[in-house]
Amino acid sequence: MSDKNKAHWSWIFNWLDTPLRTKLRVTIITLLVLFIILGIWVSSSFHWWTASNYITKYTPNPASTMRDIVWLVGSVIGGSLAILGFVNALHRTQQKDLEIAQKDLELKLLEKKSKDERISQRRQTDTEIFARSVEQLGHEEQAIRLGGLYSLENLARTARERTESTNNYAFLNSLLETLSAFVRMSAPIPPKDEQHEDDRVATDVEAAIRIISRTYGYDLRKEIKVDVDLRNCYLPKLEMPNGADMRGFELDNSILSQSRLWNISLNFTSLHNTVFIGADLEGAFIRESSLLGANLHGARLNNVDISATSLENTDLSQVEFIDARMEKTNLTRCCLDGADLRDANLSSSTLWQTSVAGAAFQGVILTKTNLNTVINITQQHINSAFWDPEHPPISSINKKLESSIKARTKEIRKQGLWEKYLAKREKNETS
pLDDT higher for 114 or 4? Predict the structure, then answer.
């Protein structure tokens, strides 16, 4: 209904909003006025006795005519009473609707007040638990520090499940910053003369990292816009659960020597100058991460996925890369001396000024790989590797190497090595 029509019929809405007593008075007065007008009109036209004689004298059935007149008068009176009843019923319905609406409003206000009180009380409780947990983190006894850490984990899990307030993001952010700060403060890198081969990360520090990885998934951290800052930390022999999520962690300049990180996710992780000497990262996923200047000497990265990862200036000597996926990986100026690259996929990777002295190349895939300026590459390396014969490795500078690649390409095509590899890969993916 338009505003103009609403204004035109506003008197009806005003009438419905008036009290019952007023409605009844107005209705009765209106009916009385109508009866008086009708009576005056009848009296002025002819007298009742004249009408009676007229009816008796000229109508064929006077009794029937009188009954009609009586019925008409009764109908008018009955209609008037019906109107009064309708007005009364309408008012009662309206009053009942108003009472229901008022009760609903009072109930909603009560629920909102109760909800606000619950939220306020919960926040106050969380704040008290948080303060008590942080105080426990500074305790001398490790068991009490662990209790504080697990208390913070419970707070984080509870806050993560709540959806009634966006303030939970700020609270989750504070909890994560607290856990990260605890690791940084508890595990600073000691001077080199104080580092020993049998050193191991403290139990509470390891627990804090595990809590972060299992409580704060990568998607959640992106949503609350917070990073896990574990830079410059001393974390030797760190052991993470199989398949732990460490995507997006900042581990720059940290030491993770002899750590065991099986099947973990390190995608999009910053690992600049991180030390992984002797670490075991078998089956890890480190796609699109940055390990510039990292030291992975002697580390085990078997079955690891580091495709599209930057490993520039990284020490990869004596590293095991068995069956690793390293497509489009940047290995510029890396040291792969003595590395075990058996069955690794180095397709389209960059090996600019990279040394491969003594590296095991049995079954290495070098499709579209640029071998220009590769240091210490030998005929034995070429004869041990294979590739798609339609897209052999690139070597336009070293003519001798280029000749070896052409000869090996003919051999691969003749023996069907590439087709066998594709069939094997398809079988593995299907199983």
Answer: 114
Structural domain harbouring 76? 3-125
Strands (E), 214-253: 228-229, 249-250
Total tally of structural domains belonging to the chain:
1
Helix (H) or strand (E) holding 23: helix 20-45
Q: What six digits make up the tokens of 62?
A: 């006077």
| Residue 327 · residue 348 · CB < 8 Å | yes
Alpha helices in 138-242 (DSSP H): 142-161, 167-186, 203-215, 218-224
Residue 72 belongs to a domain: yes
Is 334 domain-assigned?
no
Report the C-alpha gap between 268 and 39 in whole angstroms: 97
Q: Of 344, 383, 338, 373, nearest to 357 (Cα)?
A: 338
Q: What is the pLDDT of residues 159-203, one digit of tens each?
A: 887 644 546 788 888 899 999 999 999 999 999 899 998 999 999
Q: Which of 251, 233, 234 is nearest to 195 (CA)?
A: 234
**E strands, 8-98, in order:** none
- Residue 365 sits at φ, ψ, to 5 deg, of -95, 125
- pLDDT tens for 344-385 read 999 999 999 999 999 999 999 999 999 999 999 999 999 999
Q: What is the pLDDT of residue 104?
A: 77
pLDDT the model gives residue 66: 55
18 assigned to some structural domain: yes
Tell how many helices (H) and how many strands (E) occur in the chain.
12, 2
Average of per-residue pLDDT across 61-81:
62
Phi/psi class of residue 341: alpha, beta or left (left: φ > 0; alpha: ψ in -120 to 50)? alpha
DSSP code at position 228: E
Structure tokens at 275: 């030390």
Residue type, 202: A
Least confident of 72-81, 197-206, 222-231: 72-81
> Pick from 300, 298, 327: which is nearest to 311 by CA?
327
pTM, to two decimals: 0.65
412 found inside a domain: no
In whole angstroms, give the CA distance from residue 103 to residue 97. 10
